[in-house]
């Protein structure tokens, strides 16, 4: 259960030598991106109004307003919406095609004569029927040959960079509300051995450099061997097409995430990811997601800015009054203004 109130202004006034308030003041900025959570278990027969009434009675003395943001009962059979049904159907069709293509490929390999295994050239129809073969794809992925020659070490550099990239995503791109004792993470950020994780965003620069370098290298090699220049537009379109296919696959998986699992915080996290992919998939496919902002994201950002500006305006007004009081006494006061999000899930 999470308690919810969008705007909560807390002003603490105490002596400067208060150790408790000093520690609280150092940690208050975390409430700008974390929410306070209180977990309880209730019977499945409880309705939304029942949970809201119970939560309101618990925080009545603290003058909090309570709103049920999400009320969920675990169900054995997940219900698919229209988009998810279409994705599951498409995945089933592609799986059937892959299995059929693999079967055809295995039969052709078994019927092929031993002396023609290497020299036989495949027709266009034969290559088309086996293009979805999982056996052929796995052999192509794991083949030891390389076309880089003296630059084969770049394969190792690319692999290490991808591992670095994934390591950073595992630690940095998670929902920190899942964990307890998050203050330990503050200590991790100061540790020298953890700097590789914090600076894992630099791995993107390495991958971009390698792609650009290899693009130019292969272009020069083709020019020397064939005497013709590679058309950059076709190479770019080829890479873009491969990226679009991978992007669409990742989008489909993201839309299916809410029904794949369950749990107290599963729906809260995965539904936002699925909704974002559902609304903004076209921005990713067109590679303009870094240029244009989706309408709902732009609205949410504007609302947050207005809220913070209102908070700051009230804070400054109170601060002028507080300074007058401080000038008339010898006491030093600590004032904190925060915005907390408390929700019931």
Automatic annotation (TrEMBL):
The chain crosses the membrane at residues 86-107, 160-178, 198-220, 240-261. InterPro entries: O2_lipid_transport_reg. The keyword Transmembrane applies. Keywords: Membrane, Transmembrane, Transmembrane helix. This is Nose resistant to fluoxetine protein 6-like.
């Amino acid at each position: 259960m999470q308690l919810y109130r969008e705007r909560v202004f807390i002003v603490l006034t105490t002596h400067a030598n208060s150790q408790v308030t000093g520690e609280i003041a150092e940690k208050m900025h975390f409430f700008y991106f974390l929410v306070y959570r209180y977990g309880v278990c209730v019977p499945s027969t409880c309705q939304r109004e029942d949970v809201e009434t119970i939560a309101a009675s618990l925080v009545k003395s603290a003058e909090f307003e309570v709103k049920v943001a999400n009320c969920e009962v675990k169900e054995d059979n997940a219900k698919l919406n229209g988009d998810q049904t279409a994705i599951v159907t498409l995945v089933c069709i592609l799986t059937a095609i892959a299995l059929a293509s693999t079967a055809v490929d295995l039969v052709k390999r078994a019927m092929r004569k031993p002396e023609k295994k290497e020299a036989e050239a495949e027709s266009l129809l034969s290559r088309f029927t086996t293009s979805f073969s999982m056996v052929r794809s796995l052999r192509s992925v794991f083949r030891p040959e390389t076309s880089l020659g003296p630059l084969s070490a770049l394969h190792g550099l690319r692999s290490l960079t991808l591992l670095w990239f994934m390591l950073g995503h595992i630690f940095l791109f998670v929902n920190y509300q899942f964990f307890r004792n998050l203050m330990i993470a503050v200590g991790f950020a100061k540790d020298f051995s953890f700097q590789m994780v914090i600076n894992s965003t630099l791995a993107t620069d390495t991958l971009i450099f390698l792609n650009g370098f290899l693009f130019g290298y292969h272009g020069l090699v083709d020019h020397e061997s064939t005497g013709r220049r590679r058309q950059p537009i076709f190479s770019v379109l080829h890479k873009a097409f491969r990226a679009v296919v991978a992007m669409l696959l990742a989008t489909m998986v993201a839309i299916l995430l809410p029904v794949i699992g369950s749990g107290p915080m599963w729906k809260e996290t995965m539904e936002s990811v699925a909704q974002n992919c559902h609304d903004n998939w076209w921005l990713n496919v067109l590679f303009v997601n870094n240029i244009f902002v989706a309408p709902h994201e732009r609205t949410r950002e504007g609302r947050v800015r207005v809220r913070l500006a209102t908070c700051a305006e009230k804070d400054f007004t109170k601060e002028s009054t507080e300074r007058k009081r401080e000038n008339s006494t010898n006491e030093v006061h600590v004032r904190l203004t925060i915005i907390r999000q408390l929700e019931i899930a």
